[in-house]
Amino acid sequence: MGSRMSSIARLTAAAVAAGVVAAAIALPAVGGTGAMFVGASEDLGIKPEELKEPPLAEQTTVLDAEGNEIAWFYEQYRKTVSLDQVSEVMKAAIISIEDYRFYEHGAIDIEGTMRALAKNLASGGIAQGGSSITQQYVKQVLLNSATTEKEKNAALEASYARKLKELRYAMAVEEKYTKDEILEKYLNIAYFGAGAYGVEAAAQRFFGVSAAKLTLSQAATLAGAVQDPNATDPNLGKKQRAKLLDRRDVVLNRMAELKKITQEEADAAKAKKLGYKGTPIPGGCATSKYPYFCMYVRNEILSNSDFGKTAKAREQFLNRGGLTIKTTIDPKMQKAADTAIKKHVFASDNPVASEALVQPGTGAIKAMAASRDYGTNKRKKEMSYNVVADAVHGGGVGFQAGSTFKTFTLLTALDQGMKINDGFTVGSGYRAPYYSTFKNCKGENIADPSHTVTNDEGGGGFKSLATGTWGSVNTFFMMLEQKVGLCNVVKTAKSLGIKRSDGLALQEYSTFTLGINEMDPVTVANAYAAIGARGKYCAPMAISSIKDRNGKVTTYKPKCKQAIDPEVADAAANILSGVFTKGTMRGVGGIGRPAAGKTGTTDSQATAWFAGFTPDLAGAVSIGDPRGAINHKLNNITIGGRYYGSVFGASIPGPIWKDTMIAALKGVPATDFTPVNNSRFGGCGSSCQPRQPVEPEQGDDGDGFDVHFGGGDD
């Protein structure tokens, strides 16, 4: 030992004298058990330096509500495993080719370094490596920790300064961990090519097996790949596969030379084909069974401060965290939505239908479906954005929600004391009597006396809150909004989570009640879910829990508030349930259990909607042309193989909603709505025909039209 140490010292001194900055300074620890520092390293002040080891980037797995995997996110495709989950032959292969004296030396292999040093001194640079597995681990940690190009270049720099730095870190690593722990860390951090980081991901990517089941030939292949994984990447073509095959055989020969295997075993393994399977790497949302919901989850994490204070922190949390994210999506309900949409609208149709299902009382999103697949293939008319959600969650501008917004005016009227059978006599057209008829929430006069609103789905005459809603009478709701106040209606809508899909401010014009704002199905379904929950609004919720890489589970609870008086919600539900029996959905019919809802159609059938709910589930369906709904209206058009002169809310969205709800709620006991407080709201809404207005109780309320008060306690 003494003569070897003296040789090392002499070589080190010669290197320094030659001006090569500590050329052989990679010489700290020698010997196996009881390793010690050589005198030269002490003279040059080489001391261990603590290595910062941030957690490895690991893939995040997304689960549905039943625990099935539905998507994966990652910066590096990696699955960390313990050393006992790696086959013995894999350990032998990697040690044989990379550092055959790994269990015998300290931070570096003196013999290997001596050989490399002699070569380097002769060439005047780094011509040959002599890195131990520990040093290689250090290099990979520095590379994986790099956040800038400068840091990455420094981690790969061919210089003695880098080698010295690595050595100091390696010394500290050897002091901190056992050899088995170091080998485990190395096998999990190493890049093997084909997008696979770590031995487990590589085993699955290359051969479709776990690291525990690697054969001799497979193990030798992976061990050979780590030297230059890009040059031997089998996913790149025949040339790279041939190089990988050569490297495999080099490893097998080395294992035989070291007596780790027999020559016969080596020859038999070399006779095998490469066997690369190229098992697909688990994809993101593009390959998910539920791509639109997947996009929603991804963007929820990236945009929500609950998951990180900065955008960068949230991105690393998602793509590097090795999380298991359990979500709210229900496979049965998702299938129901997918099936219903595909029954009525084809993927090849120009208009696209989309639907969201939300659970009242929690805001949990149970399904997100669309008539088109997600993707970028224009020939197949794939959607490149989340047509079911808002822009924050990967969506677009949305579609005008039409008469589904009349519900917010109805709620406002009930909250202000109007009864179910209160109403007005209206004509077939409505024109604001003066500019100050409507004021937005800034107090500005925004009425347009020159514009006449006409009825698309209902005629004139006396209309109560019930009959006006059932017939979706535009002129009635314009007069009703005038009476209760535009700003109050806007506030009601906002309290139920209503916001534009594109993220811009709501347009507060007199036609607000007619649904002039662009919406997405998740937002509308969630607003209607709040009515089904007796006015309890809960923010849309897609994530129920997250388990981190260490097994710590964080559970996310619904974020709810009482947005609407429960009795007001009950009265609205009572009226809206009549839409199926006496209103615009009577031709479609109900779902065999208590349900309520509202059709929606915009001017000249640019878009069509249906939003409805039970106490157990709410849903909203929209249909429109993503090329531009205003210029590509739903008139004289074939959709789902059927010709339509004009598409209304009850034409396609209503039937989709009905089919979805019947299937989604199959086996779920029906829940009744809470009965109306008749002493407060009078009438009987959907349960009977309202009385005619009582003429003696007519009166001018000063708003330019007469209010008729219906019978009280039918």
TrEMBL record:
<dbReference type="Pfam" id="PF00905">
    <property type="entry name" value="Transpeptidase"/>
</dbReference>
<keyword id="KW-0511">Multifunctional enzyme</keyword>
<keyword id="KW-0808">Transferase</keyword>
<feature type="domain" description="Glycosyl transferase family 51">
    <location>
        <begin position="67"/>
        <end position="255"/>
    </location>
</feature>
<keyword id="KW-0645">Protease</keyword>
<dbReference type="InterPro" id="IPR036950">
    <property type="entry name" value="PBP_transglycosylase"/>
</dbReference>
<feature type="region of interest" description="Disordered">
    <location>
        <begin position="683"/>
        <end position="714"/>
    </location>
</feature>
<keyword id="KW-0328">Glycosyltransferase</keyword>
<dbReference type="InterPro" id="IPR001264">
    <property type="entry name" value="Glyco_trans_51"/>
</dbReference>
<dbReference type="Pfam" id="PF00912">
    <property type="entry name" value="Transgly"/>
</dbReference>
<keyword id="KW-0121">Carboxypeptidase</keyword>
<dbReference type="InterPro" id="IPR050396">
    <property type="entry name" value="Glycosyltr_51/Transpeptidase"/>
</dbReference>
<dbReference type="InterPro" id="IPR001460">
    <property type="entry name" value="PCN-bd_Tpept"/>
</dbReference>
<dbReference type="InterPro" id="IPR012338">
    <property type="entry name" value="Beta-lactam/transpept-like"/>
</dbReference>
<feature type="domain" description="Penicillin-binding protein transpeptidase">
    <location>
        <begin position="357"/>
        <end position="624"/>
    </location>
</feature>
<dbReference type="InterPro" id="IPR023346">
    <property type="entry name" value="Lysozyme-like_dom_sf"/>
</dbReference>
<keyword id="KW-0378">Hydrolase</keyword>
<protein>
    <submittedName>
        <fullName>Penicillin-binding protein 2D</fullName>
    </submittedName>
</protein>
